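Repro:
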Amino acid sequence: MRVAICLGLLTLLCPSIFSQSRDKIEIVPPKSYTAPKLTPSPKLQTILDGAVSRLLKSYADGSFKDTDIAATLIDLHDSNNLQTAAVRGEEKIYPASVVKMFYMNALERQLEDGKVTMTPEMQRGLKDMIVVSSNEATQYILDVLTDTSSGAELPPDEFAKWQYKRNRVNRFYAAMGYTNINVNQKTFCEDAYGIEQESRNYQGQNRNMLTTDAVARLLAEIVLGRMNTPERTKAMMDLMHRNPFSKNDDPDSQDTGFSGKALLDMKMTDAQIWAKAGWTNTARHDAAYIETPDGLKFVLVIFTEHHANDRDAIPTIVKSVIAGLRE
């Protein structure tokens, strides 16, 4: 009883003690962080609407429906005046491996704040999560971020504590004004078991979900250095850099199988691309930042569902957007 009373008085008299303890484990935005202002652009909207419309019409049998695609475009050529457009940009969609970009950014925040210490093994996991899109590496990184681990199902009270910790990444992005997303699940080659399935509520109700608007915003903020120091920004960009002109026999490589294929098809050898793709048996997504020698700087995020093996849809949109921005 005396212990409880003392703890209560300490909480009232010295709340900072408890907030400091929370800060040690929570992922927090940069101290100077402010949410970016994104201004809807009629011009960009016309470009994106036209690109999507032409893609859908190219499937004469109507097999590519308007509900099978979502996209968001942000023009970064003027960092003080970010213009944007979207098609179903606020639709919540399972993001596949695109979510790994959110975990990468969260880890860099923890590293910068000294709440996590880099080790050779963590460096290996971070690289493999983004460069080769390893699900096993992602599982490890999410454990590091949230101080949780997979295992057996837990009784309700214990599970609630576990799930609160697992939601740490969600709280980080919510603190910066990100909405309509869920980033608290591991990625798997097969399926989740035990507490991971319990966390999904067994029927997938709590799966990862992202919008193309949220993904495009995060990628833009990383590119512009709004999320971290120049050194950590460069580290993230280096991991996401892709080379569409590399020799690659994998048609689903992140270098040549997604947005990069557009640069390859257009023979844009002087263009640069940074991206994170996602691919499952039902979805094919890409989040890309592209720079061209003639001054284009834009983020384009494209999510497609029910067309997992369609290797032309995403690059077709990218090529249309590049043409529209050049007009």
